[in-house]
């Protein structure tokens, strides 16, 4: 329902901030409310997750879409609710959390409040290999599987990477995407053209 709320920070408390927009004060629970202390009476943009239960509705806010996306993924982990997911984001950086999950670093994950060994293992089981679409900036080039020629070390093909994310969102596996990407790597096209061409190859 909500993507973000842009307004003036009216109040900062230990658990939430209040952002005023057009005369309405939105109570927004954030990982680190006091990080907004320097923004009181200033305009901010907070990305919103609207959490609805039978007995309550809450707005959870994040400074970036990536934080919001990771929060949403954490909610899908058995044993982690909104408060637990918020505690993870409040205590660690997104890249640290993602790296720990991908490396199966239980010792790091159990350092977060409310995360024991069982929950840490569940985070790894539920999320490992499933965060590329959410936080692509924290992963290496999707198409660099170690076989790329040295002459192509001049940067990533952004349009092709965006096409890969779209294909993954459609349900294609990493292996399928990498296979078709190799066939398109030498071509220069727009993201949309890459997607169309890739789908044609996928369906052959």
TrEMBL record:
Residues 72-91, 107-126 form the Helix-hairpin-helix DNA-binding motif class domain. Residues 154-204 are annotated as: Domain III. GO terms for molecular function: ATP binding; four-way junction DNA binding; four-way junction helicase activity; hydrolase activity. Keywords: Cytoplasm, DNA damage, DNA recombination, DNA repair, DNA-binding, Hydrolase. GO terms for biological process: DNA recombination; DNA repair. InterPro entries: DNA_helicase_Holl-junc_RuvA_I, Hlx-hairpin-Hlx_DNA-bd_motif, NA-bd_OB-fold, RuvA, RuvA_2-like, RuvA_C, RuvA_C_sf. Has three domains with a flexible linker between the domains II and III and assumes an 'L' shape. Domain III is highly mobile and contacts RuvB. HAMAP family: DNA_HJ_migration_RuvA. This is Holliday junction branch migration complex subunit RuvA. It comes from Peribacillus psychrosaccharolyticus (Bacillus psychrosaccharolyticus). The gene is ruvA.
């Amino acid at each position: 329902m909500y993507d973000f709320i842009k307004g003036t920070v009216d109040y900062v408390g230990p658990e939430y901030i209040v952002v005023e927009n057009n005369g309405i004060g939105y109570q927004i629970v954030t990982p680190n409310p006091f990080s907004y202390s320097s923004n009181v009476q200033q305009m901010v943009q907070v990305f919103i997750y609207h959490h609805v239960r039978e007995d309550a509705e809450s707005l959870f806010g994040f400074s970036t879409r990536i934080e919001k996306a990771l929060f949403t993924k954490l909610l899908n982990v058995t044993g982690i609710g909104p408060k637990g997911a918020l505690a993870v984001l409040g205590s660690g950086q997104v890249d640290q959390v993602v790296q720990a999950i991908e490396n199966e670093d239980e010792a790091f994950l159990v350092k977060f409040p409310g995360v024991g060994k069982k929950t840490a293992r569940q985070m790894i089981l539920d999320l490992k290999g499933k965060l590329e679409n959410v936080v692509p900036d924290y992963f290496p080039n999707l198409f660099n599987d170690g076989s790329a020629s040295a002459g192509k070390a001049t940067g990533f093909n952004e349009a092709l990477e965006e096409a890969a994310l779209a294909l993954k969102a459609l349900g294609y596996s990493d292996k399928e995407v990498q296979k078709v990407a190799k066939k398109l790597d030498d071509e220069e096209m727009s993201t949309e053209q890459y997607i169309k061409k890739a789908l044609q190859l996928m369906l052959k």
